[in-house]
Design the sequence.
């Protein structure tokens, strides 16, 4: 048995999490062949088959779950060291990575960050738009701005406002509901919207609120949209009274190990202030 290459653990764990080479490749941002090579190399070096290859994907082999759990412990220890190093460096200059949904990245965060950079010279803000939650434990981002009822235990943050939603449609548009699909349909706001539409007929769906707005503007039907998107679009009219006033908290959060890093704390505080100032617009005047 050769010496273990600890970098291989990332690839093995990604396949265990995703159940396929292609899923692991997307998660890690590498190509399919790289994942295959690293996983095969690890199994050969350790003289141990971690996965059963099936027509439906990669499955953890019997009696190998303890090995996978031990790997997770190693990975978490390495990530903790990386976060500790990041916290120890902690200058007020440098890159701060902010992740949020496409709604916030289009509707409010660019103007907040533009003002923020005038106040915090030396900081470079990297804004990532993704509707799936970034993994702050793996330093995918330093700050998350998300609508959610609560935070997972590894994050700490504050509620900086509330995101209101209402019904919007183009004048003369189709008499049908537009719905959500994909991961966004399962998160807090998507679940609330699913409850509001209930058993109503859905004519078309999207996994993005900005895309749903474009579908409504094209006359495809009525959409429940965040007010910050719908109110600002002159192509749409707001149809009050079809749903009760609805909103969800907007969290600004960081990983607990990085929350007090000066540059991250400074950017987080400025984003919170910007969202608080935009409170009426985020909530919607009639929400």
Sequence:
């Amino acid at each position: 048995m050769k010496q273990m290459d600890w970098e291989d653990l990332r690839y093995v764990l990604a396949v265990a999490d995703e159940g396929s080479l292609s899923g692991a490749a997307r998660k890690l941002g590498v190509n399919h062949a790289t994942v295959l090579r690293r996983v095969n190399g690890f199994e050969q070096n350790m003289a141990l088959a971690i996965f059963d290859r099936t027509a439906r994907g990669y499955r953890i082999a019997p009696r190998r779950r303890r090995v996978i759990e031990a790997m997770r412990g190693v990975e978490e220890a390495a990530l903790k060291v990386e976060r500790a190093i990041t916290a120890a460096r902690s200058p007020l200059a440098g890159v701060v990575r902010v992740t949020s949904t496409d709604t916030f990245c289009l509707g409010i965060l660019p103007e907040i960050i533009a003002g923020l950079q005038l106040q915090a010279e030396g900081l470079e803000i990297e804004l990532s738009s993704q509707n799936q939650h970034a993994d702050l434990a793996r330093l995918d981002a330093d700050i998350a701005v998300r609508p959610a009822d609560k935070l997972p235990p590894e994050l700490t943050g504050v509620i900086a406002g509330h995101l209101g939603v209402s019904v919007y449609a183009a004048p003369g548009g189709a008499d049908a509901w537009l719905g959500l699909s994909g991961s966004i349909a399962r998160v807090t706001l998507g679940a609330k919207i699913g409850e509001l539409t209930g058993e109503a007929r859905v004519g078309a769906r999207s996994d993005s609120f900005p895309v749903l707005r474009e579908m409504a503007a094209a006359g495809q039907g009525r959409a429940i949209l965040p007010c910050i998107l719908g109110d600002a679009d002159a192509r749409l009219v707001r149809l009050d009274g079809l749903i009760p006033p609805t909103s969800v908290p907007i969290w600004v959060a960081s990983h607990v190990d990085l929350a007090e890093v000066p540059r991250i704390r400074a950017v987080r505080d400025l984003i919170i202030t910007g969202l608080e100032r935009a409170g009426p617009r985020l909530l919607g005047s009639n929400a």
Summary: Residues 8-87 form a domain with the Arc Repressor Mutant, subunit A fold (CATH 1.10.10.10). The chain has two domains: 8-87, 94-287. The chain has a mean pLDDT of 84.
